[in-house]
Queue: 4 jobs
Job 1
Amino acid sequence: MIKRDFDAAAKETYDVIVVGGGIVGAGIARDVALRGLRTLVLDKIDFGCGTTSRSSRLIHGGLRYLKRFELGLVHQDLRERDILLRIAPHLVHPLSFVIPITSGRPLQRLALPFGLTLYDLLYWRKSLPSHQRLTRRETLDMEPNLEPKGLSGSYLYHDCQAPFVERLCLENVLSAAEHGATILNYAKVMGFLRDSNNVSGVMAQDQISGETYQIQARIVVNAAGHWVDTVHDMLGKASRPMVRRTKGIHLLTAKFCRNAIVLFALSDARLFFVIPWQNYSLIGTTDTDYTGDLDAVKAEANDVAYLLKEVQSIFPNVASDDIFYTMAGLRALAYSKSRRPEDVSRSHKLIDHEREDGIGGFVSVLGGKITAYRAVAEQATDMVCHKLAVKAPCTTAEVPLPGAPMVPQQSLQQAASERGITPETVSHLASLYGSRFSQVLDLLNNNPKGGQRLCPHSQDILAQVQHAVEQEGALTIEDFLLRRSAVGLGPCQGLDALDLVGGEMARLLGWSNTELQRQVDAYRSQAALGQRFRTSGPA
């Protein structure tokens, strides 16, 4: 359970404060808490609301990084992929990838078999099958919507998907809380407490009440993602940027593929994906430098046109009218002067500011992929423990996340029968909460209306709203629709469920009519970013 209490936090002296509740910050908080250190997590908005929730939702080794011979990065990520399959089997699932082979690209035909063989060998203990070559006929049988002209066959390989990566982030937060961490969302860091040249805590503002609190800590870890420079700058220490921000967008469309498809753009040879997700297709991503508003990232018309044109080269029937909405997010890559954003390494970097600029008690975490979040967290926590002279082993590769293990199908069918709701709904709840799905169903004991579907586009039910507020720290409509449930990820962007969800949250949180309307308007504004490309010109 997430219990939000600023007053209690202000009375405590923590071993570690983690600034940032994205998946890296959440992973660090979990690791630190599991090692027995007093831990506080602060996020200025909500857990996973930035880059984490705007990703391609893949857990993968990164086939394209072989092109730059980043073998260590690929090996690490393949190992982490298998760890996540063990500790979070309810949230991370195997996914087949098809790479179409077309005429006119001899280098591709020569390089792919070598690269895929290397991909298979880099982590020999892998739990997924090795790649194989498919004929033209086998390829079209698997993906009948592919353009047959010029198609000579394909390669099939296997990686993983985290369909609800927001829940993967949240379960790390919940695990940290279970092991004693204090969790505060809507807690904006306004500055730092200092003891000479050492950071000794933070000044954090409760974004709900407006009050500011001083909170003490032995070490502060800056894991704020693409806000990492903003947080560091509060120390008043001028320096060059630590991260290079690049924008990636995704399009959600009607479903037109059965497997994940790996494509190489005709215009610039960039690798991108078409991914089956829920009952739709997710197309992405782009990679362009970004210097705009960090809190209102959106897809521009030219971003969408680029992806759409490249997809149409091999899926000619996909049209702009098929796009439901767009998502846009920022990568916070460890700073590099590489000319092209796609050439910047996805490897992470840890900065001990005591060595870097003479400020003790302060560590920054830069870059890293979602796949490797646990490994990044382990290395960051090792650094923290070394600085605190604490000897405690990392156990995050062995301890399952809260929703593990997988729930047997028979148990799901029994629960559906006992509760009088459809097996599809119970299966969906298990895909979000894992073994904790029963906590949601238990709420139906006192609220029979809790089984009501929220939206025609999803299987989510009203009881999830109560569970999100009481157990998972949801404080806004956006928190629930986009990060506690799957409702806002469907084609209507949650707008069809807005009144029902808003009314239930108002009841649970005691909102006035004015506050309810403010929440509704705020969510509509957020959803509108996903439609902005329809009216925007070239960026």
Note: The first strand starts at residue 13 and ends at 19.
Job 2
Amino acid sequence: MRRAKIVSTLGPASNTVEVISQMIKAGLNVARVNMSHGTHESHAKLIANIREASQKVGQEVAVLIDLQGPKIRVDKLDKPLELEAGSEWVIGTTKDQKDYPEYKDCYIPTVYEKLVEDCHDGARILFDDGLMVARATTRDRGVYKIKVEVGGTLKSNKGINLPDCEVSAPAFTEKDREDLIFGLKQNCDYIALSFVRRKEDVQEVKYLLHSLKKNVPIVSKIEKPQAVDNLEEIMKVTDVIMVARGDMGVELGNHLVPAVQKKIIRMCNQRHIPVITATQMLETMTENPTPTRAEASDVANAVWDGTDAVMLSGETAAGKYPVRTIEMMSSIILEAEKEPKERPFLRDMDLSNVNASVMVAASMIAEKIHAKRILSVTESGHSCLKISQFRPKTPVLGVTNHIETVRKLSLYWGVTPFYLADYDEDDFDFQKDIVQKVKENLSLENGDKLVITRGDGKFFARGSSNSVKVEIIKDRPKVPGGGDVLQEASDNKKKILLDTSVCASCQNCVSICPHDIWQVTEDQFTNTYINEPRINECTMDYECIRVCPTGAIEIIPTDI
């Protein structure tokens, strides 16, 4: 089972129900809708296709609305500009260009009205993701003179970065507000906020969501130097962190990105905040059917660092092989997870929160008894988030009766959502129904163990996971085994059978039988066996059968 999740951007190459269905089958967990491109009408159609594909495949995926943020760009150009190294140009707003006829042949127009105000002498100005580099020299009224250090061909709408300047543009623009309202109407599951610089950027969006009575998690994209500096404060108010390596590489320098990525992932793991690693992870597969070895190593190293999810961008939005790319990403993750990340010692964990301590206890119990699954019964998904961040070795089923929670759980490391539709809690037998549904779904057998976390009251009461229960799968008592696994002893009245293949060695039979008919081995393994010389003492009251949790015992009368 793959633990780290896959976030994938959808676009022209992957916007149909058929392709999205194939992507979900290949391993897609979260579908990213990039609001920098397209219209609300096209995005609504895409989200509808995502939901339809989920229904078709029978697996829900989350929808992440990625807001554009204050993207600073070159405006429309009559023709591309050739910026030669050493040449001098001026940059200013498009509306002011007519006021500077003397710079007619060397004017770079921008859509960002406060660029000149934010800039200062000596500041770097980067064009087209840093492919061209200029430096501000002198301000001339409402424009800035710049000198090109690294040249190239500058085209319309290319991005501008000001890594040395305090950009005054808000992280949450008016366009973002409109896109956010649109996303909420489409019942999106996550909101990604671009170009976050400080905690107030996140809080502004949180206040808006609160006023609208919406509880949608916010993904803070870390891509600005100021965000790296203010990371501690941002983590206190955000729900998820994204290591957005594209603009981060432009702003900080590509040589610093690996160390910053490791630092962010480590801090998120320590603070139990989900983290997504993004940008150019399998970039070669935009055009080619296989990635480079360096790209495969990049994905694997992110998994080993402890990322909760990895993200694909242009590879699946506009690439030639969107489905194959997800299959490759999934394969790399599975191989990387064969070398599990070491978990922190209990003494280093903050277990002051009751819910957190229960999740750690459940993780350890499940590991020690070799449970097949941990069942985290949840309403909001909070319990699953907690247990996910403790990185249990046992796979987790997030059992919920809310479809919104099912989709939210799709991002959580190591958690598989398990949806209980048409559920009436008042008429609900927890052991009988949930365990039976899980048993059927996972093809569990007699003797398999489940560790269940839930509250003491109603099963899905919000924030009330404070108990741990071990459930052993069992049917009506019978002994289907044979050969070496089937122990048998008999006298003239009865035959006693013990199927050791399903016996849990719980010793319930040993403790309840007053005649010492059941015994346990005294070597390093605790195994139950029939004490054959004592079976003539058996009164056939069937108490041992009643207390056997796995149906391993059967007593058959022979004197009938």
Note: Confidence is low (pLDDT under 50) at residues 476-483.
Job 3
Amino acid sequence: MDNIPSYISFIQKSIIDNWDRDALTDYQGVTLQYKDIARKIEKLHILFENSGVQKGDKIALCGRNCANWAVAFLATLTYGAVAVPILHEFKAEQVHNIVNHSDAKLLFAGDVVWPTLNADMMPNIEGVVNIPDYSLALSRSEKLTYAREHLNEMFGKKFPCNFRKNHIQYHVDQPDELALINYTSGSTGRSKGVMVPYRAMWSNMDFACKVIPMGGPGKKVISILPMAHMYGMAFEFIYEFTQGAHIYYLTRIPSPKIIFQAFQEIKPFIVIAVPLVIEKIIRKYVLPELDTTLMRLLLKLPIVSDKIREKICQKVVAAFGGKFYEVIIGGAAFSQEVEEFMHQIKFPYTVGYGATECAPIICYEDYKTFKKGSCGKAALHMQVKIDSPNPETTVGEILAKGPNVMLGYYKNDEATKETIIDGWYHTGDLGIMDKEGNVFIKGRSKNMLLGSSGQNIYPEEIEDKLSGQLYVNECVVVQRGEKLCALIYPDYEEARKKGLSDKDIADIMQENKTLLNTELPAYCQISSIEIRKEEFEKTPKRNIKRYLYQ
């Protein structure tokens, strides 16, 4: 694309235009206005400058979502440094590796994260800044120590007559300039550092501005997803910030109870979620009420059922605050059972598709025109195709091209060349595309199993059917020789409520297997069940780490 504007200019303009508006709130805690953020950014710029941080240097951030994390991130970009967001759920060893691999000069660390880390394992960083108050947790530089101790004094000298809008002058970025390095949290193995350019950040923001109607500044949104992940960063933080919105951070692990409470109080204008959040709400609080003889009978009557579905939809909408335009679901596969239910009650939802390598959006469609079972069409600014002789009927790899595509993997030319070929990003996902351009994901190419006669088996499709069976909480289908085995973590909480023993649960799982196999072709039927006592280990995005169970 030609004439891509400066991405940082949108951040600068929003701060100036929304100077006296509320911007970032730690839920049930402190609120920062846009002018407060400007002041904090300026102080961090002074700290960077006087401690020897140069434009292009790497600054890592690892901590739970909070206002000060967001400010530190904005300060990094607007200074001209490269941000390295690290998911706070990563183990200490992973954090050490990412800090070292990224060549980070400074690390902003949260109060929960820092005590778990070992500074000796990160020998090249010059300092660690505490996210809650920007104090120094570690300094290996006299310049950094001096700058932090004299920060207020330096700020006062630079702005003797108060800090105002006209003092703001941020770094001017170029489209192919490196903005951040985001280390993937994929469930297939070791993380890679995705080099995200400013053009990709701008393209995702421009996409959101054009397809998600906000209707002016001052609107509210809840940040549920980690900002260190591109999905949460792009669509629960950056887009809203550049539009003058008010962002609330839950600051702790967002359990369904906390999310419900926040939705009722804040009433967000848009809801961004991963399938797990939506599925838990639907399965726990809605579907059980419909599982009665009377309700099943009423739902079969055409006129009555429409009214019932409308009331159910109103109830689900109210659970999410009642004021949102739509719920956008992405980040992982969505249960067909739950999606069918949401479709039937005409709930305003849509399912998008993306990847860290595209910062993140690849496919999207507004809920009014969204096709059930798909993940939308090629997003604004993007091209999508299926690497298949007949994309409508023959499954092939999903390829994407456009300004969203990364520069490559940091210090990994080999992986970059394997992933970006002739400008097309090879997603590793498999799918088909209909005549209208709707994309239907069939699974990960790396997850695909081969049947005894060479048939392609997509375990996600089997798992989707199995997850809708009685008392199945989570499941993974793996290959044992030439046979398929289903690993199942049952819903022990519900089973115990019904007074079921472990033997009862095992018997039910065997019945589930029998029922499931009646719906599957012979080559992909389940031959055995393994019941787990604990949940599967997951990535921070709540995807099961499949490679641990192969």
Note: The mean pLDDT is 91.
Job 4
Amino acid sequence: MQDCPNCGEALDGATIVCPHCGATLVEEKKPRVRRRGPGSLRRIWTRLLLVLLAASIFVGVLAGSAYYGVYVGERDRQDRHTTVITQHYDAGIGALNEGRYERAVAEFKYVLELDKDNGLAQQGLAEARIRLQVKPTPTLEAAHSLAEQLLEQAQAAYRQGDWVSTARTLTQLRGLDPAYEQATVEELLFDSLRQAGQQYLDEELLEVGISYLDQAIALRPLEADVISRRNLAARYLNALNYWGVDWALCIEKFEDLVATAPDYEDVTQRLYRAYSEYGDFFVSQGEMCPAEVQFGQALRMYADPTLEEKRATAAQTCLIATPVPVSGTVPGLTPQPIAGFSVGRLAYPVYNAATGVYDLYALYSDGRIIPVAGNADQPWWEWGTGRVAYRDRNTASIRMELPEEGVPLQLLTIGQQAWPTLSPDSRRLAYAILEPEGTWGIYIANTDGSGGPRRIAAGWAPAWGRTGSLAYTGCDDSGSCGIILDDPDDDQPGGRLTGSENDQGVSWAPAGNLMAYMSNFTGNWDLFLLSPEGGVQQLTTDASDEGLPAWSPDGSSLAFVSNRSGGWGIYVMNINTRQVQRVLDLGASLPGWESQRLSWAP
């Protein structure tokens, strides 16, 4: 038994609803509130972050796809644009040949709406309008008679060599009566168009000539030589389209023309002017290094004192102001990489006309140029440390210095030493010294100062190879002189590889399997390659002087000095292609340069 909690009446224990008041007797269960611990919250945040990350990736993919779609769409749009122009130009040419001049006018006008500077469409439009003005409008009865008259007029013009009148008259005839003497008319029309096109090309009216030749091509194929002339003229016009608009692309196209047809029109003079104009453009932008390159390219084609003065000014500004000035670093000045020099560091001497001595500099691949020492020359890099050994003319000694720090280490103080060269392990130093008899001798000394110098042989300009062999210029026991190859660790005399005492300036390839040197036995100084087994190959044949070769650290190039552009400069040659790039200006004078040295290391 139980009482109703609402009205108090006694009820049966099985009753669920009170029969007196209708109250529900079953206790309602309250919903259970689930408490979430810290672990559950972390899982929720993790899931939320994953969802956000997935959404970000999805949006990124969509954005990338959209960008790619825009890029591809733009490229496709340009292709379709070019295709439409070509189709309507060809349609205009066809309408001209068929005598449908109104249609030709419409086609050429449409091309010009798409490309207002299209010279061929402009010429086609002009020709269509000329023919439209004289188009005959005969009655049907007079058509045959007029066609006969037009053919006679065309044949008379053809006999007189008036190709333009012949072509115009025959296209009028075809418009009047396409079936009249069809084979004869087409033969005459084709030949007159071909002749007119070539005549205009001869007169250097290239766009007009191309237009007539295109009309001939619409009738039948042209001979290969005529097609070649037509295409050459089109390439020339294409290059001119970039004149003053995009000098780099203009030069590229004229370089291609000069390479394939140097005598065509004025392509060679145009290329020369393009180089010069591009150089002037760089000067106007304050970019002296690329300006010097363009002026140098122009001067390789034609000598011009005014242009040489521009080049020298640009080169000097580039050398002194752009990478690093002569006297230290200017705060805020950012080094600029030098075209043609992209690896390692190059030590080189520069003649100071004000003091009358050589000063030593180091060029780095990032464009920095750091002064190493004044009144110093004949550098030799120590591989792996960044230090450079050189001849100090102030103290008559051999010194070694880390250019970035500028603290020299004195190695030798005997006096009159020259051409220092380090052994592969840097423990020994070979050099030449002027002996009391007035001749040069090759000596070796330990770099730590222990022991005394040891004389190897008579000779000068030693160069130590990476494999341990020592090369120098000297004379053998027979009195014959040239480059001597010696093992400094045995007691045997070295073997002579070449035959002139002016074979000198040896530089070893990094692998030690090849040497470069200079010689003037041809009448001027040139560069040569030399195998340790004795094979020789000449590298340069210019009438100018080239010398002081220095191998690049990767063995792919040679740096050298030359006066091939009038003044002196440092050039880099690709060994495989023989292509040469000027990288630094050294000024107008290098007195006694034959006794100098360049050194290139990683």
Note: The radius of gyration is 42 Å.
